[in-house]
Specification:
17 strands, 2,3-Bisphosphoglycerate-independent phosphoglycerate mutase, substrate-binding domain, Alkaline Phosphatase, subunit A, 16% strand, seven-stranded mixed sheet, eight-stranded mixed sheet, globular, alpha/beta
Length: 528
């Protein structure tokens, strides 16, 4: 790994961390210090903070640590901050929300079926549980009546690559057992490894994940046929089917490729699939298989072609998380490692592909898919305009700079003569946000004549070229120097800052950086 030279202190410190073997995702905390080695820009009592991330479920734990007065997971200060968040992370958080949910998503697939006295089961390991519960149910946390959940604890380890198969076998066994019991009308199962391991830069690890999922795909579908379940096999987005950039470097990010769709049933000769669908059409298709009319809220259409077919009251939706479709062999680890069971099913049962990203799923043109958007649209059966689109529209129109939630934080800092902190992901494109959000908030602070503004960044490798983090941070530091009222003061890998499984030691490391300035030092005057 080549050490690059940067003219700004934090970017230089990140480059030095790369030489030591650290990456953006797991970057140890770095803090800017003055000539006396005192940390600059720490979060102090009565300060204001804007958390600029979107998506939400990985932001809850850190927000709790910064805002909850009775927080007891580790020792905290009594900060009494004025906090604004870009979107709603959780309805119970004591924060101002800049872009709240625009509407309540009623009659999602789970809600509609359970209202019809149909029984629904969700089966997943904990790493992906939030997607099959919260997002699939229309961003609603409580489960519905007649909805059950089997959540198998993922491996508790700092090195997921040691367990490339994850809990695929256990999830498959639970799914098979539930089908054999025959009490559920709909079972929704998520097999996680292809997504989780696809983000790891170890080809052999990804290969083992692919083989694990392909093996359980055969077991599950065979059992479904034995127990009179019709199976829809699909995915939320792709990863490892386009695992290389054109220059040969590894691309661990999500893709904009379509995803596969298989329908597996004893009545396969009666079933045909149209080839122009998207994930929005999954829920209406399941209802069609069951012989139910879709609710008026669902905009999607059934993917089945033809009128003469039998209904089936038992359906399994099998989500192969991260399994995209790409006929090109370049950088395609599914083709390289082989998927014999998927290949066999594709030749015997109706097969099509589904759009899993872009405008059809409420996202900007050319954007990649992700687990949140994928599961949300599969469960909702309608197009949902993403927070990303709304935020960029407001930035372009100027309404972003008049947002009441942001102004709450700004005015608090003005009134109390305290600092404003900007916290967020530093990435060109991440499911958690964009560097554009932080740049726009810097501009807002400038317009509002705030003089004490400190930016704290998180880095993530997914979807970015190797060592992109240092480049983005260098860009922000140069912009901050030009503006004169903002300092970029700390950086940490998103592995530590964005947890969702109560790994409180990670959140504590991030808290200690933000509040106490604990981290590797970058000298304010240091430049090359």
């Amino acid at each position: 790994m080549t050490k690059q030279k940067y003219s700004t202190p934090l970017a230089q410190a990140i480059a030095e961390a790369y030489v030591k073997g650290e990456g953006d995702e797991d970057l140890e905390p770095i803090v800017l210090v003055d000539e006396n080695r005192d940390p600059i820009g720490r979060i102090n009592p009565n300060d204001a903070l804007i958390f600029a991330n979107i998506r939400g479920e990985r932001e809850v734990e850190l927000t709790l640590a910064l805002t909850e007065k009775k927080f007891d997971k580790f020792a905290i200060e009594s900060l009494d901050l004025c906090v604004s968040t870009m979107i709603e992370y959780h309805p119970d958080l004591p924060v101002h929300v800049a872009f709240p949910p625009t509407s309540n998503l009623d009659n999602t697939l789970t809600e509609f079926l359970t209202k019809q006295n149909k029984r629904v089961l969700k089966c997943v390991e904990s790493e992906k549980a939030i997607h099959l519960t919260y997002f699939f149910n229309g961003k609603k946390h409580p489960k519905f009546d007649n909805e059950d959940r089997i959540i198998i604890q993922s491996q508790e380890t700092e090195n997921l690559s040691e367990f490339p198969e994850m809990k695929t076998l256990e999830v498959a066994n639970s799914t098979i057992a539930a089908m054999e019991e025959g009490q559920y009308n709909l079972i929704v199962t998520n097999l996680s490894p292809c997504d989780v391991m696809g983000h790891i830069e170890k080809k052999e690890v990804v290969g083992k994940a692919i083989h694990a999922v392909d093996e359980q795909l055969e077991r599950i579908t065979f059992s479904a046929l034995e127990t009179d379940y019709t199976v829809l096999v699909t995915a939320d987005h792709g990863v490892a089917e386009s695992w290389l950039y054109p220059d040969g470097s590894i691309d661990t990010g999500h893709t904009s490729n379509p995803v596969p769709l298989l329908i597996i049933s004893e009545n396969e000769n009666e079933l045909k699939l149209r080839g122009d669908g998207s994930l929005v059409d999954i829920a209406p298709t399941i209802l069609d298989i069951m012989g139910l009319s879709k609710p008026q809220e669902m905009e999607g259409e059934t993917l089945l072609i033809g009128e003469t077919r039998k209904t089936c009251q038992r359906v399994l939706l099998l989500i192969l998380d991260g399994w995209g479709y790409n006929p090109d062999s370049y950088g395609n680890l599914f083709i390289e490692f082989g998927t014999p069971n998927m290949d066999k099913l594709k030749t015997h049962y109706p097969f099509a592909t589904l759009i899993a990203s872009g405008p059809r799923l409420g996202m900007p043109e050319g954007t990649v898919g992700n687990s949140e958007i994928g599961h949300l649209h599969m469960g909702a059966g309608r197009r949902i305009i993403s927070d990303r689109v709304k935020i960029f529209e407001d930035i372009e129109s100027g309404d972003f700079f008049k947002n009441n939630a942001f102004l709450e934080a700004v005015n608090h800092a003005k009134t109390n003569e305290t600092a404003l902190h900007l916290l967020g992901i530093i990435s060109f494109y991440s499911s958690h946000g964009s560097i554009k959000y932080l740049e726009s908030l810097m501009e807002l602070a400038k317009r509002e004549n705030l003089s004490k503004v400190f930016l704290h960044g998180m880095l993530g490798r997914r979807g970015e070229r190797p060592e992109a983090g240092a480049e983005y941070v260098n860009k922000l530091e140069l912009k901050a120097q030009e503006m004169g009222n903002v300092d970029v003061v700390s950086i940490i890998g998103r592995h530590w800052a964005l947890d969702r499984e109560e790994n409180w030691d990670r959140i504590q490391k991030t808290y200690n950086l933000l509040v106490y300035g604990k981290g590797n030092e970058a000298q304010l005057s240091k430049s090359i």
